[in-house]
Amino acid sequence: MRKSVIALLFAAVLSAQSIEYSAGRKTWLLKTASNAYALGVNQRGELQNLYWGGPLWRFDDIHAAQAGPEWSSFDPSQSQTNEEFLGWGGTRYLEPSVKITRANGVRDLVLHYVSHKIDGNQLDIVMKDINDDIFVTLNYLVYPAEGMIRKQAKLENRSGQPLTVESLQSGVWYLPHGEGYRLSYLTGRWAAETQLTREDIHTGEKVIESRKGHTSHNANPWFAIDQDGAANEESGRVWFGALGWSGNWRITVEQTPYSQVRVTGGWNTFDFSYTVKPGESLETPPFYGGYSNHGFGEASRMLHRFERTQILPGGGKARLRPVLYNSWEATEFAVDEPGQKALAEKAAKLGVELFVMDDGWFGKRNTDHAGLGDWTVNPQKFPRGLTPLIEAVRSLGMQFGLWVEPEMVNPDSDLYRAHPDWAMHFPGRPRSELRTQLVLNMARDDVKEHIFSVLDKLASDYPIKYFKWDMNRPFAEPGWDGAPDQKELWVKYVRNTWEIFDRLRAKHPGLEIESCSGGGGRVDLGILKRVDEVWTSDNTEAFDRLRIQEGFSQAYAPKIMSAWVTDVPNMNGRSTPLKFRFLVAMQGALGIGSNLNKFSEADVQLATQMVAYYKKIRGTVQEGKLYRLVSPRIGDVTANQYVSEDGAQSVLFAFLHSQQYRKPAPAIRLAGLDPKAVYRIQVLGQNDWRTFSGAYLMNEGVTVRLAGDYDSTSVLIEKAAN
Ligand code: GLA
Fold first, then answer.
1. Angle between the N-to-C axes of helices 601-623 and 578-585, in degrees from 0 to 180, rounded to the nearest 10
2. Cα 518 to ligand 1 centroid, rounded to whole Å
3. How many A from CA of 470 to the centre of ligand 1?
4. Concatenated DSSP letters for 590-616?
5. Residues 129 and 189 in one domain
6. Containing domain of residue 348, as a range?
7. What is the pLDDT of residues 378-421, one digit of tens each?
8. Which residues are catalytic?
9. Is residue 490 lining ligand 1, measured as CB closer than 6 Å?
10. 518 lines ligand 1 (CB under 6 A)
């Protein structure tokens, strides 16, 4: 009964108009199944944010916009007016949404409402400078079912003189007026990405950003905000957002002295400059936002669903991620035909579906000192080319994938010797190498065309299903020899690189791509439009992974979270059992990176069973709802549960990582089940099934008998027929 009422309400929201406009009050209401957003035009003609939060059913609640008071000459009205998109001009001192300099040096920009257009789920609001023909169009796209809103801005220069844009942000989000907010965000470093960080928001600005040219390991363009520390995984109000940009980005969380929290996001203003000539325009990347009434867990599930259905290539129709084998940790650069074939045979027996050959197959690539840029098969390692290996892989029933790092060049390469000017540099200045490589200036169209043709040729010459596209260093000395507007490199690099992904996919339908940047250095809602999965971290040590994956899952879907089982001792010297490693990796897109030549009979047997188990539950893991039941940051145990969209299957993963002698593991209370339904549950490795009501499993929980460090288990939960 309850379910059908919810379904009806949901259907009603979806069938109703997602954007309403009141001409009398000059207000707009944007509605989704789980939240609402409102804005209006105030008496001065400024566009003003009016609401962002839980669903509203009464448009009349939204009053006409009213500019804030002027308290003193030091506290002007504009400081207390929640302007939706703020030109830097007049008496505005908050973080601007757009800042320009005209050719004649005039920098004042005051934007007022001109017109709007509603087209289905899209709203365009046009604003214009009070004097000049400088226009900004704000575009809103509402995703009613997913509970998300996309913001984007376009600046058009119809004035007679060129403009230098010093900042053009994607948008601003306003929290309900007040204080006591708390910010959640993701920080990290190489091999320790996506660490969940929480801190109170105080007056002033908190900036999370990348200045490195790629999205970066150090911070990720996602935020979540709750108030009074009141939200937890399953309850409380959470406002959240994420940027779709794979280069220099910035999210500025600002609490004004007037108790207003506002979040501005888009291109990083650091070293930013873009010339917009008369007749030209500049469009920002998207900034997505959502609101959840049910804590951080629901906020993540909303993002996961949104990514699967609206962002990732193929949307809801994309296939489940196959079980992958990758040779990197087994062989590093020592790849050759017999070695790869031997690994492929062993991988196929375990149930692997996609075999990926990593670094080392091209040019003079025997170490990381040479070869990048020379994307031709190394004749010593593959005297007969790649075809015999690919045929062998395919005849074993697997698809073939290949590692590439197209944006890079080693100085010791034929490409660099032929085109030293293609590497990013400032004339007459040192070229800083990292991992003995330089970054190609992808902003240049000749470089872009060359890289496209290299990858196109590989995808045309061989039946390659999958590229693992790597990027193993950040930018340095981002000079662009000969270009009048050198700083545009930051933006044009990303756009050209994205274009290659798009053209490759269009020309080779079915080709899949993994985004890797030394692990999780390029994960954002921009690259996710062009790739099928991402390499989460170069750190494959299973215990460390629990935290990395907890952070990753705040913002990104388990389906794209590539996770490998690798050999021990790993990275930090820790040795966890093979079962623990498998169960950790099975919480995303399972891969294996072990040296299979070293597997014992018992390892092979366990791995085969684990891969078979994964195939039984992967639909639920990859496309279900994730409940983070017990955090690895808090105690000795980590537990995560996944529930399929239709509620028929669920799976629990539980890990013990630091047990005090004989301290029993706690009962794990499940979530996301139907309290009225009956479920049968089976512990991995046991034959018997037991039945319980959803109510019992969610109130009392399941006792996981974990004993000793790095013990782990999984429980399969199936809804019994009514
Ligand atoms: C990066 C990737 C690894 C591997 C190496 C190869 O570090 O993250 O997975 O592909 O490059 O050089």
1. 20
2. 6
3. 7
4. EEE-S-GGG--HHHHHHHHHHHHHHHH
5. yes
6. 315-406+453-480+498-623
7. 999 999 999 999 999 999 999 999 999 999 999 999 999 999 99
8. 470, 538
9. no
10. yes
